[in-house]
């Protein structure tokens, strides 16, 4: 049975799926981080791991294509290099695109719409006919508003503000120490500077689970949601059509943090007529639309 492999290679982990031509899911595989801008060699290793796993589960000669959406590959300008490496290793046609483009394929195929990704980082993409638009996605040092890293960073910043005001038992300080099992603010701040971007981002989900009734945490979420909503509205203004626009939401923050998701949807709906959909699961399934449109 002929099949294609789709890979969603993100900053936290790599997820791969093998899809038969009739739409049957033949297998899945996962590995560690896959951002080629942050760690090129690690990305190659993890891509190779998931591909090898799926090829071992199925017949190698029946794989028609490997499509990987790799985080950071567009900014790092290394898509061609990754393609060459994987082609040389597996002797199967390979196409490397950005992880955002892969999510766009899953959400819309080649139809018009707006894609909002808020995972470790964030980006807003638009597609209207042959035109492509981008807002955000400039990385955790310059942007990524509303992503998991941004949320955690803002929480720690709020804690430092409480400490500046000599509020060592302030609401945000208390939340961080309790939820993340720190003994003191000093220990938490020291740990923040030693953790990787992925480790910091992973704290967002813990804080969200335990901060539902914390007003300071809610304020941080509202600020992040407002910034995402502003980017979505700015994207909407670039579209020429007056018809309702489909907006697809994806990424760990938008799928797991209902407070932020609700606030984003509410803010955007006040200014535009839109239809929100949430993309569940891995975006590796975008390979199905890519094959349908480009190879048949």
TrEMBL record:
Annotated ranges, domain ATPase BadF/BadG/BcrA/BcrD type: 5-273
UniProt GO MF annotations: N-acetylglucosamine kinase activity
Gene3D superfamilies: 3.30.420.40
CDD domains found in the cross-reference section: ASKHA_NBD_eukNAGK-like (cd24007)
Pfam families, sorted: BcrAD_BadFG
PANTHER family noted in UniProt: BADF TYPE ATPASE DOMAIN-CONTAINING PROTEIN (PTHR12862), N-ACETYL-D-GLUCOSAMINE KINASE (PTHR12862:SF0)
Protein name: ATPase BadF/BadG/BcrA/BcrD type domain-containing protein
Organism field: Latilactobacillus curvatus
């Amino acid at each position: 049975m002929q099949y294609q492999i789709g890979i969603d290679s993100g900053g936290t982990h790599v997820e791969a799926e093998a899809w038969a031509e009739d739409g049957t899911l033949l297998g899945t595989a996962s590995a560690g981080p896959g951002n080629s801008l942050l760690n090129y060699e690690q990305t190659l290793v993890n891509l190779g791991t998931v591909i090898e796993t799926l090829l071992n589960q199925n017949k190698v000669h029946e794989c028609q294509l490997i499509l990987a959406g790799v985080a950071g590959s567009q900014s790092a300008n290394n898509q061609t290099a990754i393609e060459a490496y994987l082609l040389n290793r597996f002797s199967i046609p390979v196409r490397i695109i950005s992880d955002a483009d892969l999510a766009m394929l899953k959400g819309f195929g080649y139809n018009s719409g707006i894609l909002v990704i808020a995972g470790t980082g964030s980006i807003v993409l638009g597609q209207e006919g042959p035109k492509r638009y981008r807002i955000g996605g400039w990385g955790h040092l310059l942007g990524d508003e509303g992503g998991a890293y941004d949320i955690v960073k803002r929480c720690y910043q709020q804690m430092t503000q409480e400490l500046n005001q000599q509020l060592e038992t302030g609401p945000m300080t208390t939340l961080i120490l309790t939820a993340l099992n720190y003994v003191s603010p000093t220990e938490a701040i020291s740990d923040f500077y030693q953790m990787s971007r992925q480790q910091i981002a992973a704290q967002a989900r813990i804080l969200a689970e335990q901060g539902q009734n914390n007003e300071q945490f809610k304020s941080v979420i509202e600020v992040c949601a407002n910034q995402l909503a502003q980017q979505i509205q700015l994207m909407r203004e670039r579209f020429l059509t007056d018809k309702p626009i489909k907006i697809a939401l994806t990424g760990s923050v938008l799928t797991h943090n209902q407070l932020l998701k609700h606030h984003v949807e509410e803010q955007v709906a006040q200014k535009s007529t839109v239809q929100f959909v949430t993309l569940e699961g891995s975006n590796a399934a975008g390979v199905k639309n890519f094959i349908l449109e480009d190879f048949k």
